[in-house]
Amino acid sequence: MLIVYLSLTGNVRNFVRRTGFDSFELSYTNPLSEINEDFIVIAPSYDDDITEIISSFIDYKNNQDYLKGFVGSGSLNYDDKYCFNAKDLSLKYRKPLIFTFEFSGTDNDVINFKKEVNEFGIASVK
């Protein structure tokens, strides 16, 4: 299982490193990379540009064929805008919103993320 992510402040990068999954960090300026294995996208919450950048990546070549779902990172201070990029992408691509976490997540968030991934049958995580 591969985690594809975008990290502007380092919060998502920190979370991903703690999961132990193989990962690929998208470039904010050139997200057009081809992935040929199942992956989950972790999207931070900033502005509508994030949705467009990640959509460009997903729509590139056959990436959409390997997309399994989305995870969102954000701040609960933004109420209904919490993790809105991941929620929007989930609706757009009709893939599950697997998990959300605040900022770089807690140790419990990492544990619960792995449980959610297993429940969706996306990967076998120890």
Automatic annotation (TrEMBL):
This is Class Ib ribonucleoside-diphosphate reductase assembly flavoprotein NrdI. InterPro entries: Flavoprotein-like_sf (IPR029039), RNR_NrdI (IPR004465). It comes from the Bacteria. GO terms for molecular function: FMN binding. NCBIfam families: nrdI. It holds the Pfam family Flavodoxin_NdrI.
